[in-house]
């Protein structure tokens, strides 16, 4: 009991929201002009769009975002701001070692989505 | 095509790799004519940056010719000779709009690593590990350049590759060091490290009107090069730096201290031995000798401008000196896009010549030898530059 209470107080609860700021007016992210990718996210997750302070666009927050969803949210931001999502697969590369080839999917996952 | 790949700690090799292709609508393909080694590559080579995979193409400081552009590229055209900024910006996010290009939100598709380590991720960099986006580097015959309109800059005809190549990184990084320190007339500036970036920080400080620039290193040929630019050389192996800087500044200390060394700093004495030992057993990721010295030396109320690359944790950080002397600490990877047009213009007018940095022009096939000369500072090497068309 005591141990559990100490553990709880030692590790504060983490927020369940994953948020990004996008250079877009909130009006561009709601109603008929809402981007498809944002609509799809909203089907699976609770999504909150608010105006960012200081004319910095909009804050998009997604609840209970797993690794895949975080990747989607970042892609959405990139699409809205730059018009496309940057691709790094398919670039030139030299000989990959056996270990490198085996570890690559997990490595990619870690660098792309992060450990959370 | 041929490309220089990282194959393991302190191992590089030239390999046959597939040619790059346009992967995004705003990409350009550039035929590389010159690509320089950089001190920051040594951290990759030495295995201090964990997000490297054998087979990754190295190189981030380059000049070349545009050979193909994507359908949404508006400004750049095939045939143009361009310097490409080593740090990739998108041009549209809040940071790029503010001129803080190396903080770009959109050009690092692999932000997970840095977010865990640093809280947030910075921009993508060519050939600089998967933590910096996993972009193939420029030590190759061709390289793909994302968001080409904002990252590739036409080079004036009268500026040779030997100077233009350094407008990609060494010159704008040095320029930013002086700019962050707001160097102006009457200032005394001290620069730690006389590699390419340190040399250019000294030059930028002089161009911004500094009264005096003191350049600190231990290699005679690098100190001579700084002296040729107009700086006063200071050899830290033979002179106590803190003592000398006080004497040279009437006891005040330099107004601006520019650190152009980074996480693999060399030095002398017990502090250096301590740093090496702790880094070797990974109790600290970065050696902070020159950074500590810059903070200690800086005059009260002065600015310390950090250009050297640091990855994670530095031990024994002199927070007391920073706080009690009221210092300003400024830093960052270079916001090159802000400075490159000015630098190319000044190069064209003959006000900046970076070509003395190029001590070793080489073929791409000689890449491993080039890195060895550069790393071990052999044969007076300041920068080895690979020219893929050279045989």
UniProtKB/TrEMBL annotation, chain B:
Gene3D superfamilies: Medium-chain alcohol dehydrogenases, catalytic domain, NAD(P)-binding Rossmann-like Domain. Residues 26-151 form the Alcohol dehydrogenase-like N-terminal domain. The keyword Zinc applies. Its cofactor is Zn(2+). One of its GO terms (molecular function) is zinc ion binding. Pfam families: ADH_N, ADH_zinc_N. Residues 196-262 form the Alcohol dehydrogenase-like C-terminal domain. Keywords: Metal-binding, Oxidoreductase, Zinc. Belongs to the zinc-containing alcohol dehydrogenase family. This is Glutathione-dependent formaldehyde dehydrogenase.
């Amino acid at each position: 009991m005591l141990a559990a209470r100490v553990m709880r107080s030692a590790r504060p609860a983490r927020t369940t929201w994953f948020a990004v700021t996008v250079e877009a007016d909130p009006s561009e992210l709601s109603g008929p002009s809402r981007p498809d990718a944002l609509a799809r996210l909203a089907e699976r997750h609770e999504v909150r769009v608010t105006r960012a302070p200081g004319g910095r666009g909009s804050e998009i927050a997604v609840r209970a975002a797993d690794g895949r969803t975080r990747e989607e949210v970042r892609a959405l931001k990139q699409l809205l701001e730059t018009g496309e999502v940057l691709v790094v697969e398919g670039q030139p590369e030299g000989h990959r070692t056996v270990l490198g080839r085996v570890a690559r999917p997990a490595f990619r996952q870690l660098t792309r989505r992060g450990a959370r | 095509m041929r490309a220089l790949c990282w194959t393991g700690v302190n191992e590089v090799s030239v390999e046959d790799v597939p040619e790059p292709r346009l992967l995004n609508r705003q990409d350009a393909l550039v035929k590389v004519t010159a690509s320089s080694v950089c001190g920051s590559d040594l951290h990759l080579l030495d295995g201090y940056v964990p997000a490297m995979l054998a087979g990754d193409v190295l190189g981030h400081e380059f000049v070349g010719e545009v050979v193909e552009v994507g359908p949404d590229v508006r400004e750049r055209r095939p045939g143009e000779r361009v310097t490409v900024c080593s740090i990739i910006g998108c041009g549209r996010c809040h940071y790029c709009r503010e001129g803080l290009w190396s903080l770009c939100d959109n050009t690092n598709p692999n932000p997970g690593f840095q977010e865990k380590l640093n809280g947030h991720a910075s921009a993508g960099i060519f050939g600089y590990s998967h933590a910096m986006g996993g972009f193939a580097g420029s030590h190759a015959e061709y390289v793909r350049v994302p968001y080409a309109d904002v990252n590739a800059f036409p080079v004036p005809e009268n500026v040779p590759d030997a100077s233009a190549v350094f407008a990609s990184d060494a010159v704008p990084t040095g320029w930013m060091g002086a700019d962050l320190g707001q160097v102006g007339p009457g200032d005394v500036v001290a620069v730690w490290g006389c590699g390419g970036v340190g040399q250019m920080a000294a030059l930028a400080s002089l161009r911004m009107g500094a009264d005096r620039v003191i350049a600190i290193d231990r290699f005679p040929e690098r100190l001579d090069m700084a002296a040729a630019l107009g700086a006063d050389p200071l050899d830290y192996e033979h002179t106590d730096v803190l003592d000398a800087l006080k004497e040279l500044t009437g006891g005040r200390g330099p107004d601006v201290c520019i650190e152009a060394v980074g996480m693999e700093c060399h030095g002398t004495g017990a502090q250096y031995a301590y740093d090496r030992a702790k880094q070797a057993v990974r109790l600290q990721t970065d050696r902070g000798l020159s950074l500590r010295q810059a903070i200690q030396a800086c005059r009260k109320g002065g600015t310390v401008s950090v250009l050297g690359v640091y990855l994670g944790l530095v031990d024994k950080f002199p927070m007391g000196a920073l706080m009690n002397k009221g210092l300003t600490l400024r830093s960052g990877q270079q916001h090159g896009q802000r400075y490159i047009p000015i630098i190319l213009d000044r190069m064209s007018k003959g006000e900046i010549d970076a070509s003395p940095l190029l001590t070793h022009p080489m073929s791409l096939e000689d890449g491993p030898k080039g890195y060895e000369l550069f790393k071990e500072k052999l044969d007076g090497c300041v920068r080895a530059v690979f020219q893929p068309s050279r045989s």
